[in-house]
Design brief:
single chain; alpha/beta; Amidase signature (AS) enzymes; eleven-stranded mixed β-sheet; about 40% helix
């Protein structure tokens, strides 16, 4: 998909291009290339073409069909679109077709976008590599032997491979930012509550956020504006208007803090070199780059994996074989059926996190584990608040390494969890953060620069990221064989 979303939408709205031809081209690219990438588990060809034809008829009638007119979009497999299978990468939800459409998906459709399919993901968004899916493993278009990241593996791979210009993922502890970094694209986690979670199948309810992926920050802004805003169906949604992009904002005169904890000796040398160069570019663009400290960073991963697993154990209790999804007969009793269903339906990583979450919530351990983790979460949020008294943004690597090889960490859960060490602090604090490409390593693997903003400063953060991106050409690099 050579054109960006904004260009495609403008051409369709003016009648210079037909939505059907735009969508057909995307479907052809998916058909030709997805056997190697495996970004999608379901492509809704007929429905997508029918919607595109309806949009063309409306354009011909002189209607305004919206700011995303005819733009093909991919949805992560934990998002509800009425009638389209949303199995969350899990056997326990095999064949589940939601009877309703998520608020953010409805807003996409209202903006004129065309959903072309559902993408592969780590089961229930639990993973950092895409390898926990029950339906095969998505691959990184830059190197098919490497992970595209997780848990929004397929959504990131679909954009990086040029199948679609836009995709939605969900970011609980870094599940959009890390795949964006690994795949050489842009990914944005909004302030918690900026986008309705109604229709996002839950993992960790105090952390989950619907998050856009695109090749450029401008396209992130376009997609974010379409899906953000108040929603009475989600009590955690901020009561505010959609977030419009800011023009004229940038980096000149801004202070950018670089946490010393994010530039440790554990960083991959190639990542460190690219991030150092990016920080220098920020200075050349008028920002003052200064050191800051986020002293509780070292406690973020353990705190996250207590809070997130506790919420997961509660959220996933609904999968009992009674109401929807898989049902295994067991020994004939109700408890036997529930146990057999969960044993057959959940993968190893999901079982591990349910067990962890159940333990930390259990009588006698709640305060020692969950209560303590929540207090650490508060300390991490205060670290950021103190930093933002001195700086406008915080910057550093998105991930400590470039994309690792498939199979390299899957047998070592702790090492896998530590790949999120630079993204989970932001999630615990509920802050907006964006990952943008800042170059490639010596072995041609993408590196992401993470910029973090104050709570509710989503538009300012994206404007700063756009300024950096438009002054560089890193986002223009493509995997071999993918059109520019």
């Amino acid at each position: 998909m050579s054109a960006d979303a904004a260009t495609l939408a403008a051409a369709v709205a003016r009648g210079e291009r037909g939505a059907r031809s735009v969508v057909a081209e995307a479907l052809e690219r998916i058909e030709a290339g997805d056997d190697a990438v495996r970004a999608f588990y379901r492509v809704d060809r007929d429905a997508a073409l029918a919607r595109a034809e309806a949009l063309d008829a409306r354009v011909a009638a002189g209607e305004d069909v919206g700011p995303l007119a005819g733009v093909p979009v991919a949805l992560k497999g934990n998002m509800c679109l009425e009638g389209s299978e949303a199995h969350c990468g899990s056997r326990v939800l095999a064949g589940y077709r939601p009877p309703y459409t998520a608020t953010f998906v409805r807003r996409l459709l209202d903006a004129g976008a065309v959903v072309v399919g559902m993408t592969n993901m780590d089961e229930f968004a639990m993973g950092s590599s895409g390898e926990n899916s029950a339906y095969g493993v998505a691959r990184n278009p830059w190197d098919p032997e490497r992970t595209p990241g997780g848990s929004s593996a397929g959504s990131a791979a679909a954009v990086a491979a040029g199948f679609v210009p836009l995709a939605l993922g969900s970011d609980t502890g870094g599940s959009v930012r890390q795949p964006a970094s690994f795949c050489g694209i842009s990914g944005f986690k909004p302030t918690y509550g900026r986008v309705s979670r109604y229709g996002l199948i839950a993992y960790g309810s105090s952390l989950d956020q619907v998050a856009p992926l695109a090749r450029s920050v401008r396209d992130l802004e376009l997609l974010f504006e379409a899906i953000s805003g108040r929603d009475p169906l989600d009590s955690t949604c901020i009561d505010d208007d959609p977030v419009r992009p800011l023009e004229g904002e940038g980096l000149a005169g801004k202070r950018v803090g670089v946490p010393r904890e994010y530039l440790s000796d554990d960083l991959d040398a190639g990542v460190r070199a690219r991030v150092d160069a990016a920080l220098e570019t920020l200075g050349q663009l008028g920002a003052e780059v200064v050191p800051v400290s986020l002293p509780h960073t070292e406690h973020a991963v353990p705190a996250y994996y207590v809070v997130a697993t506790a919420e997961a154990s509660s959220n996933l209790a609904r999968y009992d074989g009674v109401r929807y999804g898989l049902r295994a007969p067991g020994d004939g009793s109700l408890q036997g059926m529930i146990a057999a269903t969960r044993d057959a339906g959940f993968g190893d990583e999901v079982k591990r996190r349910i067990l962890l979450g159940t333990y930390v919530l259990s009588s006698g351990y709640y305060d020692a584990w969950y209560g303590r983790a929540q207090r650490v979460r508060g300390l991490i949020a205060r670290d950021f608040a103190r930093a933002f008294e001195e700086v406008d943004f915080v910057a550093g690597p998105t991930s400590p390494t470039p994309a690792f090889r498939l199979g390299e960490l899957i047998e070592d859960p702790v090492a896998m969890y530590l790949s999120d060490v630079l993204t989970v602090p932001v999630s615990l604090a509920g802050l907006p953060a964006v990952s943008v490409p800042c170059g490639t390593t010596d072995v041609a693997l993408p590196v992401g620069l993470q910029l973090v903003g104050r709570r509710l400063a989503d538009a300012e953060l994206l404007a700063a990221a756009r300024t950096y991106q438009e002054a560089t050409e890193h986002h223009l690099a493509r995997p071999q064989g993918v059109p520019a």
